[in-house]
Design a protein that fits this description.
Helices cover 40% and strands 21% of the residues. Helix 1 crosses helix 7, helix 2 runs antiparallel to helix 5 and helix 9 packs across helix 10. By secondary structure, the protein is an alpha/beta fold. The protein binds nicotinamide-adenine-dinucleotide. The site of nicotinamide-adenine-dinucleotide has 32 residues, from helix 7 and helix 8.
Protein backbone atom coordinates (compact mmCIF):
# COMPACT_ATOMS: atom_id res chain seq x y z
CA UNK A 1 0.00 0.00 0.00
CA UNK A 2 1.24 3.51 -0.81
CA UNK A 3 2.38 5.44 2.26
CA UNK A 4 2.35 9.19 1.93
CA UNK A 5 2.53 12.39 3.96
CA UNK A 6 2.67 16.16 3.85
CA UNK A 7 5.15 17.74 1.44
CA UNK A 8 6.99 20.68 2.99
CA UNK A 9 10.00 22.55 1.59
CA UNK A 10 10.52 19.91 -1.07
CA UNK A 11 10.43 16.85 1.19
CA UNK A 12 7.97 14.37 2.63
CA UNK A 13 7.31 15.02 6.33
CA UNK A 14 5.77 12.36 8.55
CA UNK A 15 7.80 12.19 11.76
CA UNK A 16 5.78 9.98 14.10
CA UNK A 17 2.57 11.40 12.71
CA UNK A 18 -0.89 9.93 13.13
CA UNK A 19 -2.04 8.29 9.86
CA UNK A 20 -5.31 7.55 8.14
CA UNK A 21 -6.38 5.41 5.20
CA UNK A 22 -7.31 6.61 1.74
CA UNK A 23 -10.28 4.48 0.70
CA UNK A 24 -11.29 3.35 -2.79
CA UNK A 25 -15.01 4.26 -2.94
CA UNK A 26 -15.60 1.51 -5.52
CA UNK A 27 -14.59 -1.24 -3.09
CA UNK A 28 -14.47 0.32 0.37
CA UNK A 29 -10.89 -0.94 0.69
CA UNK A 30 -7.85 1.08 1.81
CA UNK A 31 -5.51 1.96 -1.07
CA UNK A 32 -3.02 4.22 0.69
CA UNK A 33 -1.96 5.34 4.13
CA UNK A 34 -1.47 9.04 4.68
CA UNK A 35 0.21 10.77 7.63
CA UNK A 36 -1.81 13.66 9.00
CA UNK A 37 -0.17 17.05 9.38
CA UNK A 38 0.22 18.45 12.89
CA UNK A 39 -0.25 22.13 13.77
CA UNK A 40 3.56 22.36 13.75
CA UNK A 41 3.58 21.01 10.18
CA UNK A 42 1.15 23.75 9.10
CA UNK A 43 3.45 26.36 10.66
CA UNK A 44 6.46 24.77 8.97
CA UNK A 45 4.71 24.73 5.58
CA UNK A 46 3.74 28.40 5.85
CA UNK A 47 7.27 29.29 6.96
CA UNK A 48 8.71 27.33 4.02
CA UNK A 49 6.45 29.24 1.63
CA UNK A 50 7.45 32.56 3.19
CA UNK A 51 11.12 31.64 2.83
CA UNK A 52 10.70 30.59 -0.81
CA UNK A 53 8.76 33.69 -1.78
CA UNK A 54 11.60 36.16 -2.53
CA UNK A 55 13.33 33.79 -4.95
CA UNK A 56 10.16 32.73 -6.78
CA UNK A 57 8.50 36.17 -6.83
CA UNK A 58 11.83 37.65 -7.91
CA UNK A 59 12.23 35.29 -10.88
CA UNK A 60 11.47 36.81 -14.26
CA UNK A 61 8.13 35.93 -15.85
CA UNK A 62 10.08 33.97 -18.46
CA UNK A 63 11.88 31.96 -15.77
CA UNK A 64 8.60 31.16 -14.00
CA UNK A 65 7.02 30.27 -17.32
CA UNK A 66 9.82 27.84 -18.16
CA UNK A 67 9.42 25.96 -14.86
CA UNK A 68 5.64 25.71 -15.31
CA UNK A 69 6.01 24.57 -18.92
CA UNK A 70 8.35 21.84 -17.70
CA UNK A 71 5.75 20.88 -15.09
CA UNK A 72 3.13 20.57 -17.86
CA UNK A 73 5.49 18.29 -19.79
CA UNK A 74 6.25 16.15 -16.73
CA UNK A 75 2.56 15.90 -15.86
CA UNK A 76 1.99 14.67 -19.42
CA UNK A 77 4.72 12.07 -19.01
CA UNK A 78 3.10 10.94 -15.72
CA UNK A 79 -0.45 11.06 -17.05
CA UNK A 80 -1.02 7.34 -16.55
CA UNK A 81 0.07 7.55 -12.91
CA UNK A 82 -2.16 10.59 -12.33
CA UNK A 83 -5.13 8.83 -13.92
CA UNK A 84 -4.56 5.71 -11.81
CA UNK A 85 -4.29 7.71 -8.56
CA UNK A 86 -7.36 9.79 -9.38
CA UNK A 87 -9.43 6.69 -10.17
CA UNK A 88 -8.30 4.90 -7.00
CA UNK A 89 -8.98 7.71 -4.55
CA UNK A 90 -12.26 9.05 -6.08
CA UNK A 91 -13.77 6.00 -7.79
CA UNK A 92 -14.36 8.04 -10.93
CA UNK A 93 -14.51 6.08 -14.22
CA UNK A 94 -11.13 5.74 -15.89
CA UNK A 95 -12.55 7.24 -19.10
CA UNK A 96 -13.45 10.45 -17.27
CA UNK A 97 -10.07 10.68 -15.54
CA UNK A 98 -8.17 9.94 -18.76
CA UNK A 99 -10.21 12.16 -21.08
CA UNK A 100 -11.21 15.02 -18.78
CA UNK A 101 -9.49 15.36 -15.37
CA UNK A 102 -5.89 14.70 -16.33
CA UNK A 103 -5.66 16.25 -19.84
CA UNK A 104 -7.72 19.21 -18.62
CA UNK A 105 -5.29 19.72 -15.74
CA UNK A 106 -2.25 19.46 -18.00
CA UNK A 107 -3.74 21.99 -20.40
CA UNK A 108 -4.40 24.31 -17.48
CA UNK A 109 -0.78 24.03 -16.30
CA UNK A 110 0.35 24.78 -19.85
CA UNK A 111 -2.01 27.77 -20.04
CA UNK A 112 -0.57 29.28 -16.84
CA UNK A 113 2.97 28.70 -18.08
CA UNK A 114 2.02 31.14 -20.86
CA UNK A 115 -0.08 33.44 -18.68
CA UNK A 116 2.93 34.02 -16.39
CA UNK A 117 4.32 36.25 -19.17
CA UNK A 118 1.13 38.25 -19.73
CA UNK A 119 0.91 40.67 -16.84
CA UNK A 120 -1.53 43.50 -17.51
CA UNK A 121 -2.12 47.03 -16.30
CA UNK A 122 -3.12 50.52 -17.35
CA UNK A 123 -0.75 52.26 -19.77
CA UNK A 124 2.14 54.14 -18.21
CA UNK A 125 1.48 57.84 -18.88
CA UNK A 126 1.67 61.40 -17.52
CA UNK A 127 -1.92 61.47 -16.25
CA UNK A 128 -1.29 64.44 -13.92
CA UNK A 129 0.98 66.21 -16.39
CA UNK A 130 3.69 66.50 -13.71
CA UNK A 131 4.28 62.81 -13.01
CA UNK A 132 4.79 59.58 -14.81
CA UNK A 133 2.33 57.01 -13.45
CA UNK A 134 2.97 53.34 -13.93
CA UNK A 135 1.49 50.11 -12.66
CA UNK A 136 3.40 47.25 -11.11
CA UNK A 137 1.78 43.83 -10.77
CA UNK A 138 3.22 42.01 -7.77
CA UNK A 139 2.59 38.60 -6.24
CA UNK A 140 0.08 38.64 -3.37
CA UNK A 141 2.55 36.57 -1.33
CA UNK A 142 1.90 33.32 0.52
CA UNK A 143 -1.36 31.70 -0.59
CA UNK A 144 -3.26 29.16 1.53
CA UNK A 145 -5.41 26.87 -0.59
CA UNK A 146 -8.06 24.37 0.49
CA UNK A 147 -9.59 21.99 -2.08
CA UNK A 148 -12.39 19.38 -2.23
CA UNK A 149 -12.46 15.69 -3.22
CA UNK A 150 -14.54 15.70 -6.40
CA UNK A 151 -11.84 16.71 -8.92
CA UNK A 152 -8.73 16.62 -6.71
CA UNK A 153 -6.12 17.23 -9.42
CA UNK A 154 -8.09 19.83 -11.37
CA UNK A 155 -9.03 21.76 -8.23
CA UNK A 156 -5.39 21.81 -7.10
CA UNK A 157 -4.22 22.96 -10.54
CA UNK A 158 -6.91 25.66 -10.77
CA UNK A 159 -5.65 27.19 -7.51
CA UNK A 160 -1.93 26.46 -7.41
CA UNK A 161 -0.99 27.22 -11.02
CA UNK A 162 -2.25 30.81 -11.29
CA UNK A 163 -0.71 31.49 -7.88
CA UNK A 164 2.67 30.15 -9.00
CA UNK A 165 2.40 31.96 -12.35
CA UNK A 166 1.87 35.21 -10.44
CA UNK A 167 4.98 34.55 -8.32
CA UNK A 168 3.21 33.48 -5.13
CA UNK A 169 4.25 30.59 -2.87
CA UNK A 170 1.54 28.12 -1.91
CA UNK A 171 0.44 25.85 0.92
CA UNK A 172 -2.40 23.59 -0.17
CA UNK A 173 -4.57 21.33 1.94
CA UNK A 174 -6.31 18.82 -0.30
CA UNK A 175 -9.35 16.93 0.95
CA UNK A 176 -8.30 14.31 3.47
CA UNK A 177 -10.12 11.77 1.25
CA UNK A 178 -8.08 12.50 -1.89
CA UNK A 179 -4.53 13.85 -1.34
CA UNK A 180 -2.67 11.56 -3.78
CA UNK A 181 -2.63 13.52 -7.05
CA UNK A 182 -1.96 16.85 -5.31
CA UNK A 183 1.12 15.27 -3.69
CA UNK A 184 2.28 13.87 -7.04
CA UNK A 185 1.84 17.32 -8.60
CA UNK A 186 4.00 18.89 -5.88
CA UNK A 187 6.74 16.29 -6.44
CA UNK A 188 6.66 16.89 -10.19
CA UNK A 189 6.86 20.65 -9.61
CA UNK A 190 10.11 20.14 -7.70
CA UNK A 191 11.45 17.99 -10.55
CA UNK A 192 10.45 20.80 -12.93
CA UNK A 193 12.73 23.21 -11.05
CA UNK A 194 10.35 24.96 -8.68
CA UNK A 195 12.27 26.18 -5.62
CA UNK A 196 11.69 24.10 -2.48
CA UNK A 197 9.00 25.69 -0.36
CA UNK A 198 7.13 27.38 -3.22
CA UNK A 199 4.58 24.54 -3.33
CA UNK A 200 3.76 22.79 -0.03
CA UNK A 201 1.04 20.27 0.72
CA UNK A 202 -0.39 19.65 4.19
CA UNK A 203 -2.57 16.58 4.55
CA UNK A 204 -5.37 16.21 7.05
CA UNK A 205 -8.92 17.00 8.02
CA UNK A 206 -10.71 20.30 7.56
CA UNK A 207 -11.62 21.28 11.11
CA UNK A 208 -8.00 21.01 12.31
CA UNK A 209 -5.46 21.29 9.46
CA UNK A 210 -7.79 23.30 7.17
CA UNK A 211 -8.88 25.65 9.94
CA UNK A 212 -5.27 26.18 11.07
CA UNK A 213 -4.29 27.12 7.53
CA UNK A 214 -7.30 29.35 6.80
CA UNK A 215 -6.74 31.35 9.97
CA UNK A 216 -2.95 31.43 9.82
CA UNK A 217 -1.48 34.86 10.55
CA UNK A 218 1.47 34.44 8.21
CA UNK A 219 -0.44 33.83 4.97
CA UNK A 220 -1.50 36.69 2.69
CA UNK A 221 -4.48 35.12 0.94
CA UNK A 222 -6.87 32.22 1.40
CA UNK A 223 -8.45 30.56 -1.60
CA UNK A 224 -11.02 27.82 -1.13
CA UNK A 225 -13.09 25.41 -3.21
CA UNK A 226 -15.76 23.42 -1.43
CA UNK A 227 -19.18 23.68 0.15
CA UNK A 228 -20.86 26.99 0.86
CA UNK A 229 -21.10 26.30 4.60
CA UNK A 230 -17.40 25.52 5.02
CA UNK A 231 -16.45 28.36 2.65
CA UNK A 232 -18.13 30.84 4.96
CA UNK A 233 -16.25 29.42 7.96
CA UNK A 234 -13.01 29.74 6.01
CA UNK A 235 -13.87 33.31 5.04
CA UNK A 236 -14.54 34.20 8.67
CA UNK A 237 -11.19 32.73 9.74
CA UNK A 238 -9.38 34.65 6.99
CA UNK A 239 -11.32 37.82 7.76
CA UNK A 240 -10.12 37.70 11.36
CA UNK A 241 -6.59 38.07 9.98
CA UNK A 242 -7.66 40.56 7.29
CA UNK A 243 -6.55 38.29 4.45
CA UNK A 244 -7.70 38.42 0.84
CA UNK A 245 -10.18 35.61 0.10
CA UNK A 246 -11.43 33.83 -2.99
CA UNK A 247 -14.27 31.28 -2.74
CA UNK A 248 -15.57 28.69 -5.23
CA UNK A 249 -18.61 27.14 -3.53
CA UNK A 250 -21.64 25.00 -4.19
CA UNK A 251 -24.12 25.12 -7.06
CA UNK A 252 -27.62 24.13 -8.11
CA UNK A 253 -27.49 24.73 -11.83
CA UNK A 254 -30.71 25.29 -13.78
CA UNK A 255 -31.08 23.61 -17.17
CA UNK A 256 -33.79 25.54 -19.04
CA UNK A 257 -35.42 23.85 -22.05
CA UNK A 258 -37.55 26.23 -24.13
CA UNK A 259 -40.32 24.88 -26.38
CA UNK A 260 -38.28 25.44 -29.56
CA UNK A 261 -35.27 23.46 -28.29
CA UNK A 262 -33.78 20.46 -30.06
CA UNK A 263 -35.35 17.92 -27.70
CA UNK A 264 -32.91 15.08 -28.42
CA UNK A 265 -29.96 17.38 -27.79
CA UNK A 266 -31.52 18.59 -24.54
CA UNK A 267 -32.25 15.03 -23.33
CA UNK A 268 -28.75 13.80 -24.09
CA UNK A 269 -27.20 16.98 -22.69
CA UNK A 270 -29.22 16.70 -19.48
CA UNK A 271 -28.10 13.14 -18.80
CA UNK A 272 -24.44 13.94 -19.48
CA UNK A 273 -24.52 17.14 -17.42
CA UNK A 274 -26.38 15.54 -14.51
CA UNK A 275 -24.28 12.39 -14.29
CA UNK A 276 -20.75 13.65 -14.94
CA UNK A 277 -18.50 12.55 -12.07
CA UNK A 278 -21.55 10.76 -10.56
CA UNK A 279 -23.20 14.16 -10.25
CA UNK A 280 -20.45 15.27 -7.85
CA UNK A 281 -19.80 18.39 -9.88
CA UNK A 282 -20.59 21.90 -8.68
CA UNK A 283 -21.80 22.91 -12.17
CA UNK A 284 -23.80 19.72 -12.82
CA UNK A 285 -27.29 20.14 -14.24
CA UNK A 286 -29.56 19.61 -11.25
CA UNK A 287 -32.77 21.55 -11.95
CA UNK A 288 -34.26 20.87 -15.37
CA UNK A 289 -36.90 23.55 -16.04
CA UNK A 290 -38.83 22.47 -19.11
CA UNK A 291 -41.52 24.02 -21.33
CA UNK A 292 -44.91 22.40 -20.65
CA UNK A 293 -45.26 21.23 -24.27
CA UNK A 294 -41.99 19.25 -24.09
CA UNK A 295 -42.25 18.14 -20.46
CA UNK A 296 -43.55 14.57 -20.82
CA UNK A 297 -41.26 13.75 -23.75
CA UNK A 298 -38.26 15.21 -21.90
CA UNK A 299 -38.96 13.14 -18.76
CA UNK A 300 -39.48 9.95 -20.78
CA UNK A 301 -36.37 10.59 -22.88
CA UNK A 302 -34.10 11.31 -19.91
CA UNK A 303 -35.37 8.22 -18.07
CA UNK A 304 -34.67 6.08 -21.12
CA UNK A 305 -31.09 7.35 -21.56
CA UNK A 306 -30.40 7.11 -17.81
CA UNK A 307 -31.51 3.47 -17.98
CA UNK A 308 -28.71 2.73 -20.46
CA UNK A 309 -25.94 4.23 -18.33
CA UNK A 310 -23.33 1.62 -17.37
CA UNK A 311 -22.72 1.64 -13.62
CA UNK A 312 -19.75 -0.37 -12.44
CA UNK A 313 -16.03 -0.92 -12.07
CA UNK A 314 -14.23 2.43 -12.54
CA UNK A 315 -11.26 0.64 -14.13
CA UNK A 316 -13.42 -0.69 -16.97
CA UNK A 317 -13.29 1.74 -19.93
CA UNK A 318 -16.94 0.91 -20.66
CA UNK A 319 -18.11 2.18 -17.26
CA UNK A 320 -20.05 5.45 -17.35
CA UNK A 321 -20.86 5.95 -13.69
CA UNK A 322 -18.65 5.23 -10.68
CA UNK A 323 -19.54 5.31 -6.97
CA UNK A 324 -20.20 8.28 -4.73
CA UNK A 325 -17.20 9.35 -2.66
CA UNK A 326 -18.13 7.77 0.69
CA UNK A 327 -20.72 5.79 2.61
CA UNK A 328 -21.74 8.96 4.45
CA UNK A 329 -22.22 10.85 1.22
CA UNK A 330 -24.32 8.07 -0.31
CA UNK A 331 -26.46 8.09 2.81
CA UNK A 332 -27.00 11.84 2.37
CA UNK A 333 -27.95 11.49 -1.32
CA UNK A 334 -30.23 8.49 -0.67
CA UNK A 335 -31.90 10.30 2.23
CA UNK A 336 -32.72 13.34 0.10
CA UNK A 337 -34.16 11.15 -2.68
CA UNK A 338 -36.16 9.10 -0.15
CA UNK A 339 -37.74 12.25 1.28
CA UNK A 340 -38.66 13.68 -2.16
CA UNK A 341 -42.05 11.89 -2.62
CA UNK A 342 -43.34 13.34 0.65
CA UNK A 343 -42.81 16.78 -0.92
CA UNK A 344 -44.54 15.87 -4.20
CA UNK A 345 -41.57 14.55 -6.23
CA UNK A 346 -42.09 11.53 -8.50
CA UNK A 347 -39.06 9.22 -8.73
CA UNK A 348 -39.19 8.20 -12.40
CA UNK A 349 -36.04 6.11 -12.45
CA UNK A 350 -33.25 5.21 -10.04
CA UNK A 351 -33.52 6.10 -6.38
CA UNK A 352 -31.71 2.92 -5.29
CA UNK A 353 -28.23 1.68 -4.55
CA UNK A 354 -27.24 -1.36 -6.62
CA UNK A 355 -26.27 -4.60 -4.87
CA UNK A 356 -22.49 -4.46 -5.03
CA UNK A 357 -19.57 -3.40 -2.85
CA UNK A 358 -18.69 0.28 -2.80
CA UNK A 359 -20.91 3.34 -2.61
CA UNK A 360 -22.75 3.20 -5.91
CA UNK A 361 -26.10 4.85 -6.53
CA UNK A 362 -28.17 4.54 -9.70
CA UNK A 363 -28.89 7.50 -12.01
CA UNK A 364 -32.02 9.11 -10.64
CA UNK A 365 -34.69 11.32 -12.18
CA UNK A 366 -37.28 13.05 -9.99
CA UNK A 367 -40.12 14.76 -11.86
CA UNK A 368 -42.84 17.17 -10.70
CA UNK A 369 -40.72 18.52 -7.83
CA UNK A 370 -42.23 21.35 -5.82
CA UNK A 371 -40.45 24.69 -5.80
CA UNK A 372 -39.89 24.63 -2.05
CA UNK A 373 -38.82 20.98 -1.86
CA UNK A 374 -35.46 19.97 -0.46
CA UNK A 375 -34.27 18.17 -3.63
CA UNK A 376 -35.04 21.27 -5.68
CA UNK A 377 -33.40 23.81 -3.36
CA UNK A 378 -30.44 22.07 -1.71
CA UNK A 379 -27.27 20.73 -3.29
CA UNK A 380 -27.57 16.91 -3.59
CA UNK A 381 -24.15 16.32 -5.22
CA UNK A 382 -25.17 12.95 -6.61
CA UNK A 383 -26.46 11.45 -9.89
CA UNK A 384 -29.88 13.05 -9.46
CA UNK A 385 -31.76 15.33 -11.85
CA UNK A 386 -35.00 17.06 -10.81
CA UNK A 387 -37.56 18.39 -13.31
CA UNK A 388 -40.22 21.08 -13.20
CA UNK A 389 -42.39 22.60 -15.93
CA UNK A 390 -42.66 26.31 -16.79
CA UNK A 391 -45.48 28.22 -18.44
CA UNK A 392 -43.77 31.09 -20.31
CA UNK A 393 -40.32 32.64 -20.71
CA UNK A 394 -40.75 34.95 -17.71
CA UNK A 395 -41.64 31.96 -15.56
CA UNK A 396 -38.68 29.96 -16.90
CA UNK A 397 -36.16 32.68 -16.03
CA UNK A 398 -37.81 33.35 -12.67
CA UNK A 399 -37.47 29.66 -11.77
CA UNK A 400 -33.88 29.55 -13.03
CA UNK A 401 -33.00 32.41 -10.68
CA UNK A 402 -35.01 31.07 -7.75
CA UNK A 403 -31.95 29.80 -5.90
CA UNK A 404 -29.34 31.22 -3.57
CA UNK A 405 -26.62 29.70 -5.80
CA UNK A 406 -25.24 31.23 -8.99
CA UNK A 407 -22.45 29.09 -10.39
CA UNK A 408 -23.63 27.80 -13.76
CA UNK A 409 -26.74 27.45 -15.91
CA UNK A 410 -27.81 26.49 -19.41
CA UNK A 411 -30.55 27.49 -21.81
CA UNK A 412 -31.68 25.27 -24.68
CA UNK A 413 -33.33 27.10 -27.58
CA UNK A 414 -32.96 27.76 -31.31
CA UNK A 415 -34.24 31.32 -30.93
CA UNK A 416 -31.34 33.76 -30.80
CA UNK A 417 -33.33 36.37 -28.86
CA UNK A 418 -34.35 33.88 -26.20
CA UNK A 419 -30.74 32.74 -25.94
CA UNK A 420 -29.53 36.31 -25.53
CA UNK A 421 -32.21 37.08 -22.94
CA UNK A 422 -31.36 33.95 -20.93
CA UNK A 423 -27.64 34.71 -20.99
CA UNK A 424 -28.37 38.27 -19.83
CA UNK A 425 -30.92 37.52 -17.13
CA UNK A 426 -29.80 34.27 -15.52
CA UNK A 427 -27.69 35.02 -12.46
CA UNK A 428 -24.66 32.75 -12.74
CA UNK A 429 -20.92 32.83 -13.35
CA UNK A 430 -21.43 30.88 -16.59
CA UNK A 431 -24.41 30.44 -18.92
CA UNK A 432 -24.16 27.81 -21.64
CA UNK A 433 -26.39 27.93 -24.69
CA UNK A 434 -27.36 24.50 -26.07
CA UNK A 435 -24.74 22.74 -23.98
CA UNK A 436 -23.90 22.31 -20.30
CA UNK A 437 -20.53 21.46 -18.63
CA UNK A 438 -17.69 22.24 -21.08
CA UNK A 439 -14.90 24.33 -19.60
CA UNK A 440 -11.76 25.71 -21.18
CA UNK A 441 -8.51 27.05 -19.75
CA UNK A 442 -8.80 30.45 -21.48
CA UNK A 443 -12.21 31.22 -19.93
CA UNK A 444 -13.08 31.86 -16.27
CA UNK A 445 -14.96 29.65 -13.84
CA UNK A 446 -16.54 31.06 -10.70
CA UNK A 447 -19.88 31.99 -9.22
CA UNK A 448 -22.02 34.66 -7.68
CA UNK A 449 -24.25 34.63 -4.59
CA UNK A 450 -23.91 31.52 -2.41
CA UNK A 451 -21.59 30.04 -5.07
CA UNK A 452 -18.81 32.40 -4.00
CA UNK A 453 -16.74 35.03 -5.75
CA UNK A 454 -13.55 35.31 -7.73
CA UNK A 455 -12.42 33.24 -10.69
CA UNK A 456 -10.48 30.06 -11.38
CA UNK A 457 -8.90 29.41 -14.80
CA UNK A 458 -8.14 32.08 -17.45
CA UNK A 459 -6.29 35.40 -17.08
CA UNK A 460 -8.99 36.49 -14.62
CA UNK A 461 -7.72 33.95 -12.12
CA UNK A 462 -4.13 35.20 -12.51
CA UNK A 463 -5.47 38.60 -11.37
CA UNK A 464 -6.66 37.02 -8.09
CA UNK A 465 -3.05 36.37 -7.10
CA UNK A 466 -1.61 39.75 -8.09
CA UNK A 467 -1.66 43.14 -6.41
CA UNK A 468 -1.83 46.44 -8.29
CA UNK A 469 0.79 48.96 -7.24
CA UNK A 470 0.75 52.51 -8.57
CA UNK A 471 4.17 54.15 -8.91
CA UNK A 472 3.96 57.94 -9.42
CA UNK A 473 7.22 59.72 -10.26
CA UNK A 474 7.61 63.49 -10.31
CA UNK A 475 8.97 64.62 -13.68
CA UNK A 476 9.20 68.39 -13.01
CA UNK A 477 12.22 68.33 -10.73
CA UNK A 478 10.97 71.48 -8.94
CA UNK A 479 10.73 71.84 -5.16
CA UNK A 480 7.90 74.36 -5.24
CA UNK A 481 5.13 72.25 -6.76
CA UNK A 482 1.85 73.81 -7.80
CA UNK A 483 -0.30 71.50 -5.65
CA UNK A 484 1.58 72.54 -2.47
CA UNK A 485 -0.30 75.88 -2.61
CA UNK A 486 -3.54 73.99 -1.88
CA UNK A 487 -2.01 72.97 1.45
CA UNK A 488 0.01 76.10 2.30
CA UNK A 489 -0.19 79.29 0.27
CA UNK A 490 3.13 80.93 1.21
CA UNK A 491 6.59 79.51 1.92
P1 LIG B 1 -16.19 20.65 1.94
O1 LIG B 1 -16.58 22.05 2.05
O2 LIG B 1 -16.73 19.67 2.91
O3 LIG B 1 -14.60 20.50 2.03
C1 LIG B 1 -13.75 21.23 1.17
C2 LIG B 1 -12.40 21.33 1.83
O4 LIG B 1 -12.52 22.10 3.03
C3 LIG B 1 -11.79 20.00 2.24
O5 LIG B 1 -10.39 20.03 2.03
C4 LIG B 1 -12.07 19.94 3.74
O6 LIG B 1 -11.18 19.13 4.46
C5 LIG B 1 -11.91 21.40 4.11
N1 LIG B 1 -12.59 21.80 5.36
C6 LIG B 1 -13.66 21.24 5.96
N2 LIG B 1 -13.95 21.90 7.10
C7 LIG B 1 -13.06 22.92 7.21
C8 LIG B 1 -12.87 23.97 8.15
N3 LIG B 1 -13.65 24.10 9.22
N4 LIG B 1 -11.87 24.85 7.94
C9 LIG B 1 -11.08 24.74 6.84
N5 LIG B 1 -11.21 23.77 5.92
C10 LIG B 1 -12.20 22.87 6.09
O7 LIG B 1 -16.50 20.21 0.44
P2 LIG B 1 -16.33 18.79 -0.21
O8 LIG B 1 -17.39 17.90 0.36
O9 LIG B 1 -14.91 18.36 -0.15
O10 LIG B 1 -16.66 19.13 -1.75
C11 LIG B 1 -17.94 19.25 -2.25
C12 LIG B 1 -18.37 20.70 -2.29
O11 LIG B 1 -17.44 21.44 -3.07
C13 LIG B 1 -19.71 20.89 -2.98
O12 LIG B 1 -20.46 21.82 -2.26
C14 LIG B 1 -19.32 21.46 -4.34
O13 LIG B 1 -20.33 22.22 -4.96
C15 LIG B 1 -18.13 22.27 -4.00
N6 LIG B 1 -17.30 22.50 -5.19
C16 LIG B 1 -17.31 23.74 -5.76
C17 LIG B 1 -16.55 23.99 -6.90
C18 LIG B 1 -16.55 25.35 -7.55
O14 LIG B 1 -15.70 25.57 -8.41
N7 LIG B 1 -17.44 26.26 -7.20
C19 LIG B 1 -15.76 22.97 -7.43
C20 LIG B 1 -15.76 21.73 -6.82
C21 LIG B 1 -16.53 21.51 -5.69
Amino acid sequence: MTVTASWIAGASVADGAETHHIIDPATGRAVAECALASPADVDAAVAAARAALPEWAGATPAERSAVLATLARLAGEHAEQLVAEEVRQTGKPVRLAAEFDVPGSIDNIDFFAGAARHLEGKATAEYSGDHTSSIRREAVGVVATITPWNYPLQMAVWKVLPALAAGCAVVIKPSELTPLTTLTLARLAREAGLPDGAFNVVTGAGPDVGAALAGHREVDMVTFTGSTAVGRTVMAAAAAQGHRVQLELGGKAPFVVFDDADLDAAIQGAVAAALINTGQDCTAATRAIVATDLYDDFVAGVAEVMGKVVVGDPDDPDTDLGPLISAAHREKVAGMVARAPAEGGRVVTGGVAPERPGWFYLPTLIADVAEQSEVYRDEIFGPVLTVRAFTDDDDALRQANDTEYGLAASAWTRDVYRAQRASREIKAGCVWINDHIPIISEMPHGGVGASGFGKDMSDYSLEEYLTVKHVMSDITGVADKAWHRTVFAKR
